[in-house]
Design goal:
The chain is mainly alpha-helical and about 375 residues long. It contains 16 helices and seven strands. It has a three-stranded mixed beta sheet. It has a two-stranded antiparallel ribbon with strand order 1-2. Strands 4-5 form a two-stranded parallel sheet. Helix 2 (about 35-55) runs antiparallel to helix 3, helix 4 (about 95-110) packs across helix 9 and helix 8 packs across helix 10 (about 215-240).
Length: about 375
Amino acid sequence: MLENGHHTSDIAAPELDPRAWTRILAKYREPSRARSVIELVITVVPLVLLWVLMWATLGLGYWFCLLLAVPAAGFLVRLFMIQHDCGHGAFFRHRLTNDWVGRVIGVLTLTPYDFWRRTHAIHHASSGNLDRRGIGDIDTLTVSEYQARPWWGRFGYRLYRHPFVMFGVGPAYLFILQHRLPIGLMRGGGWQPWISTMATNAAIAAVITTVIWFVGVGPFLLIHLPIAIFAGSIGVWLFYVQHQFEETFWAEERTWNVHAAALHGSSHYALPAVLRWFTANIGVHHVHHLCSRIPYYRLPDVLREHPELVATGRLTILQSRCCVRLVLWDEGRRRLVSFRDMSRRNIRDRKAAWSLAKPASPPRPEHPQ
């Protein structure tokens, strides 16, 4: 069905108790070491082979190389999702194993593990909380906040929310530049993310220098930049649609609840099987937020054994296209809206106010027949 110009799921989800689900899902948290190792191998090896194949075929034409960059980017996204599970302590049983696997992967994904883990933990602890925005999330203004900004502030927010910036320039800036310095974590014991980030930067520099020594600067840039940019854009898109859908959950601190925010503020991005594999089931995001210790390869088990969770926050690829224009939280309507929706409502409100303020017309005098 269409509501307010946006596509919502036609599957009615039953009322669910978010707090009860966290207890039900606890039994899925146990990882399998053998399965985790296999998942790691079948992700890293194809990525390396595709990289080498792109280098070997550069002479055949760059368009063929770019074509190979697409599946390579898919494997890099999958590798990032393994790093993501390590950050939650979900991929292996022991924290030390998770941390060091995550740190090594962070060199390949250009993401300093300890810095990212800390900001992502803040995201999980504050997702959907209007009073705790700003770290580990996509900047989202309320309608009233946007309207209170001066024209240059509104222009800056519109520019930030433009699809070309959000999914094009933004991911490249995030992974190539912003992740090089963990700005914002100086206080509160922020030394560990800084040390980790500098160590990651040094390891990235060493790996890049070694690869360039073998293949040259030009071939390296022609091969790896498209992979990194494609993977970054895919990753940002996934993170976007997992929280920026029409009927998501936002609330002020006094009424905010972490369990309700997890279940109703995260989407179930229903992807085709091949995309579910490449994205490591991250589309089952509401379950992930309810219990972040579940390894990604056990998330399908949750949906299979608890089909009532399938309909909650469900988005298909076609439906998710509408999420791009949802940029402001309407506190009155309790949903995300577009700039156009906001403008139309402003016009209606002004017309209604003008009608109320307009004096009533005096009665016409009766004319004798």
